[in-house]
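Regression test case RT-17, inverse folding.

Input:
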């Protein structure tokens, strides 16, 4: 089935959970886009990578509540909510919507490669929402851990495909000066290099130079996507903004060895070794997710301004 007008498709269904989506990092139209894709495609096995408070998980769980046998598997590297350590990752569901939990399994404390083989049980994932670091290597590595387990015609939804153009910088404190969204390019790079049928919404609350510009996108996997996976390995050579933990590199490398050819593993090794060596002199280092906190505050402010702009434009 061709997906059409996804952000308007059954968007009223979101009203059931609207009041719990305050901490969602997606704007309203982005939530509607995700909701519409799910309700049109009716995926059974859904993977979410990057949970935070649970905003996008709520959108997905709410959309699948009446889809028979649908199940959401969510992965987050942090056990605790990265913006506020006092809360668990995904706490919004436990706190406000526990009745949606029977269709949800949450895995925290590891990267995708730590859990994916158990989750996928073969090549079974219909839809994946990928929303993690936004800094290279970030989602470029995540997607390589995910692709071998996606169904043919499966859909990948990417959030923050234009994160680097958002004007978060306005309020970032001096303390967190090293956090710079201008280098938050990994989902943009991924969306640009991947060979697939790509989908963007028709509407956005974000403006770049006054022009609405969508910050969420999706692509439908086809033969070309899998035949051109070398391009994604190649894109890994772009400047790394942080170095993943050594234990995570080991886990993902083991997975890559199973699913990708020797040439790509070699590329991965060379690039990783290069940036590991360089890391001491990297200009931007964002190993700590605490740096995101000030960005989130600015993000909320930015959303607020955009909502006001929209009111006047309408
Ligand atoms: C942008 S937030 C996710 C926002 C959420 N999808 C929403 O819309 O409300 C990014 C999340 O990714 C997690 N994360 C960072 N690196 C990760 C990785 N390599 N694998 C899985 N999760 C990761 C962080 O802990 C954080 O919770």
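Golden output:
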């Amino acid at each position: 089935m061709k997906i059409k007008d996804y952000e308007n498709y059954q968007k009223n269904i979101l009203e059931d959970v609207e009041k719990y989506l305050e901490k969602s990092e997606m704007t309203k139209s982005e939530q509607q886009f995700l909701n519409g894709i799910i309700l049109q495609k009716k995926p059974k096995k859904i993977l979410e990578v990057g949970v935070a408070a649970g905003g996008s998980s709520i959108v997905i769980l709410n959309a699948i509540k009446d889809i028979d046998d649908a199940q959401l598997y969510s992965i987050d590297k942090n056990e605790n909510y990265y913006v506020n350590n006092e809360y668990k990752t995904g706490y919004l569901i436990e706190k406000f919507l526990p009745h949606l939990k029977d269709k949800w399994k949450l895995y925290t404390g590891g990267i995708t490669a730590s859990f994916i083989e158990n989750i996928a049980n073969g090549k079974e994932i219909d839809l994946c929402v990928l929303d993690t670091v936004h800094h290279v290597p970030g989602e470029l590595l995540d997607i390589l851990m995910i692709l071998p387990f996606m169904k043919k015609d499966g859909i990948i939804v990417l959030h923050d495909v234009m994160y680097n153009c958002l004007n978060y910088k306005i309020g970032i404190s001096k303390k967190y000066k090293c956090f710079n969204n201008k280098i938050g390019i990994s989902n943009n790079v991924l969306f640009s290099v991947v060979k697939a049928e790509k989908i963007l919404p028709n509407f956005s609350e974000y403006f770049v130079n006054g022009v609405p510009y969508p910050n969420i996108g999706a692509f439908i996997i086809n033969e070309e996507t899998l035949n051109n996976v070398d391009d994604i390995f190649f894109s890994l050579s772009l400047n790394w903004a942080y170095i993943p933990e050594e234990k995570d590199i080991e886990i993902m490398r083991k997975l890559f060895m199973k699913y990708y050819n020797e040439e790509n593993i070699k590329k991965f090794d060379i690039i990783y070794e290069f940036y590991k060596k360089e890391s001491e002199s990297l200009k931007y280092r964002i190993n700590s997710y605490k740096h995101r906190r000030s960005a989130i505050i600015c993000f909320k402010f930015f959303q607020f301004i955009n909502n006001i702009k929209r009111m006047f434009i309408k």
